Amino acid sequence: MDNLTLYIGNKNYSSWSFRPWIAMEATGIPFEEILIPFDFPAGNPRIREISPTGRVPVLLHGSLRVWESLSIIDYVSELYPEAGLWPRDRAQRAVARSVSMEMLSGFRALRGACPMNIRRERGKIALADGVMADVLRIETIFRELRGRSGGPFLFGGFSAVDAMFAPVVSRFDTYDLVTASDTLSYMSALKAHPAWLKWEAAARAEPWIVSDDEV
Prior knowledge:
This protein has two domains: about 5-85, 3-Layer(aba) Sandwich (Glutaredoxin); about 90-200, Glutathione S-transferase Yfyf (Class Pi), Chain A, domain 2 (Up-down Bundle). The chain contains nine helices and four strands. The protein has helices at about 15-25, 45-50, 70-80, 90-105, 110-115, 130-150, 160-175, 180-190, 195-205, and strands at about 5-10, 30-35, 60, 65. A four-stranded mixed sheet has the order 2-1-3-4, with helices on one face. The protein is globular and about 45 Å long. About 40% of the residues are buried. One of its GO terms (molecular function) is glutathione transferase activity. Its EC number is 2.5.1.18.
């Protein structure tokens, strides 16, 4: 099998890169990482050399390019079914994909007001309309899924859904958005995962600053 190469952006800011990276790292899928930093005002022109959209993440597998976080996760789950990224049960897999798509396409108020910024000092900010509605919906998803699975993650063991919501957990923590004990319990489990800790340490060591994401 050809090696997998995952192109990502700054670990401090790139929520889209975080998703496939933690999915693969946490489940033992082997890959090479290449980071192209957003160190220009309008990004980095090098990204267009490897990405058809001019954005990261992008996965290279031989001559194949796969882009968009969820597509990458889905592709590697087919290459490595033993990684268990999606539930085996068909009904549970449908739910997992539904909430993953909801994360992919929704929660724009939260994402716009609270960009991922791992290095930012933890603290509240003034919130735009709609942010707390997004937060409450996400907490409901967490509560329902962990209530059915028993935790510690959303479907029991770490899965693609945890990867899709990892940047939201970072936002909840950075901007001090939640107080419910069950939400904090899930956040603690995810933030203690070795893959999370590895990403976080690298993010905190990065030298680049993207002013648009410094709220």
